[in-house]
Q: What sequence folds into this?
């Protein structure tokens, strides 16, 4: 083979594959630029519709990875590399990973559903999966709560979404339920007036619905008066504790007793006959 023929063959080869390499690089660069533009557009639309920030970040990252994978496959195909086997390997690897991470994937799916349907949000006080606390963060796999005694609880999303969820912060107001016990010899009307006086003089107690004090039970050792008052959700426990203390002090001052549990014991004498 003469040098001229060799040079022509090398030139032809470089020209052919060089164009392929340049085309593949162009596809990758332009495709990556287009993918970023598409993701930015999706982010703007989601933010405009006030979608949760966690979901916006997750969708944008997942979408970018998917688009970038498509661009890489297109670039490899332009180089003449058979991508069918490559895609099959990726599919098999994805299946194997999915089977190995079934629990994590269920938590992932539950996290997505919670972010979309929003049964609760950060800052809400909720009860679910056997625990209760204030929501600190809602992540893709777990939800983090802070208990009233400042403990951190991390719950898998699949567990909390698969159980009943009680959200104490959804409504702006809540009902405060209290029970006060008096003796059978005490004046029921007087006790009711004392309780109503304490409640109605608390500015945090709402006027509508009106608070009520009703006789709810004739117990073994006491007469129980159930008290129901409405307030803002943030004031519930303060009202509960302070009202209990004020009612106790007023009962003491007005001579209303709060009985202890008691039981009457009757003793019978039995005389035995002597022989």
A:
């Amino acid at each position: 083979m003469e040098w001229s023929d060799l040079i022509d063959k090398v030139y032809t080869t470089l020209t052919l594959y060089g164009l392929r390499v340049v085309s593949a690089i162009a596809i990758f660069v332009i495709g990556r630029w287009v993918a970023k533009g598409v993701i930015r557009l999706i982010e703007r639309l989601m933010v405009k519709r006030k979608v949760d920030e966690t979901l916006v970040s997750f969708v944008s990252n997942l979408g970018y990875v998917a688009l970038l994978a498509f661009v890489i496959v297109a670039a490899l195909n332009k180089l003449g590399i058979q991508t069918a086997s490559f895609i099959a390997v990726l599919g098999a690897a994805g299946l194997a990973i999915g089977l190995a991470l079934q629990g994590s994937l269920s938590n992932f799916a539950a996290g997505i559903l919670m972010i979309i349907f929003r049964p609760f949000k950060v800052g809400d006080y909720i009860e679910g999966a056997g625990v209760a606390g204030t929501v600190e963060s809602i992540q893709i796999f777990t939800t983090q709560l802070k208990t009233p005694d400042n403990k951190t609880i991390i719950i898998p999303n699949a567990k909390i979404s698969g159980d009943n969820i009680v959200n104490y912060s959804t409504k702006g107001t809540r009902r405060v339920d209290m029970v006060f016990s008096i003796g059978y010899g005490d004046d029921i009307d007087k006790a009711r007036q004392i309780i109503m006086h304490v409640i109605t003089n608390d500015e945090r107690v709402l006027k509508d619905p009106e608070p009520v004090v009703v006789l709810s039970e004739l117990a073994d050792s006491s007469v129980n008066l159930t008290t129901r008052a409405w307030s803002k959700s943030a004031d519930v426990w303060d009202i509960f504790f302070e009202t209990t203390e004020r009612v106790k002090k007023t009962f003491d001052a007005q001579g209303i007793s709060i009985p202890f549990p008691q039981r009457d014991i009757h003793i019978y004498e039995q005389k035995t006959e002597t022989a």
Summary: The mean pLDDT is 83. The chain has three domains: 3-100, 119-167, 173-254. The longest helix spans residues 3-48.
